[in-house]
Amino acid sequence: xxxxxxxxxxxxxxxxxxxxxxxxxxxxxxxxxxxxxxxxxxxxxxxxxxxxxxxxxxxxxxxxxxxxxxxxxxxxxxxxxxxxxxxxxxxxxxxxxxxxxxxxxxxxxxxxxxxxxxxxxxxxxxxxxxxxxxxxxxxxxxxxxxxxxxxxxxxxxxxxxxxxxxxxxxxxxxxxxxxxxxxxxxxxxxxxxxxxxxxxxxxxxxxxxxxxxxxxxxxxxxxxxxxxxxxxxxxxxxxxxxxxxxxxxxxxxxxxxxxxxxxxxxxxxxxxxxxxxxxxxxxxxxxxxxxxxxxxxxxxxxxxxxxxxxxxx
Length: 313
Ligand SMILES: NC(=O)c1ccc[n+]([C@@H]2O[C@H](COP(=O)([O-])OP(=O)(O)OC[C@H]3O[C@@H](n4cnc5c(N)ncnc54)[C@H](OP(=O)(O)O)[C@@H]3O)[C@@H](O)[C@H]2O)c1
Prior knowledge:
With 313 residues, this protein is of the alpha/beta class. 40% of the residues lie in helices and 18% in strands. The longest helix is centred in the last third of the chain and has 19 residues, at 236-254.
């Protein structure tokens, strides 16, 4: 596993990070807690140190599982969670009011069973609250020692600039993968120039970039991943399949899994500190962690980019 310094923080994060959205059991269909605990332990045993979670994943469920998993292992973990969105019945509400942030962090610390969080991130911007109010509250809470470093997620450059002018922001968590490359235009260059570490999310496109779906999948009850990762309908589905043939060819050359090629491509992009990857079980966590052990050659990275441009235009 390779490790990278996260932006201007002193956090050294594994190039593959473990995401826990699916462990909330509210968006990806059901799963079993024992399997999730094993996945987290296997990830840690194979060099992953960054675990990313959020209160909204299963309305606290994912944080509780992470808390259970890291008991006795706290010093092995760079613990990242978020604030700013929560569930009210079936609706997701954005709320970065100072009172809500206070309530959220106290609840997260309790569920995670820790005294402090390493990376506390704004999950989504809240247009209903002046950014200054939210950030001043976060600065205050940081001074109390409840978290070490501040990050943001789903921010554009204007929002990053505004936030950074009020508080020290060390990282951005954007949607970025071989299939989701919008940040390459403005956001990524700005982050590189300003030493903001990037934690990419959706690195496997919700699983499609493993190549395991040979036909368009029918997801089970409660599994809504295709609402978020919009790669499972034509014309995108067909294009992804074309790209997967190129990725498989490269994977076969190295006797690796397609996901290893995808994750290596991701972490080898300039500015990426960690590629966050969700895992539902031990085998997935181990496989994903092993992707942090090797790298593609420059001409292979180029071949992937050329194929991407030919297929997606
Ligand atoms: N900040 C944000 O707004 C935001 C948004 C989305 C995600 N995130 C974070 O980023 C993390 C990663 O993204 P994600 O979990 O949404 O998507 P992802 O990493 O692209 O896909 C994860 C899913 O792919 C499948 N998978 C993973 N490894 C595999 C392997 N080796 N072989 C076969 N299948 C495998 C698993 O689902 P199945 O086994 O069920 O197929 C797993 O749940 C999240 O968990 C979360 O922490 C943040």
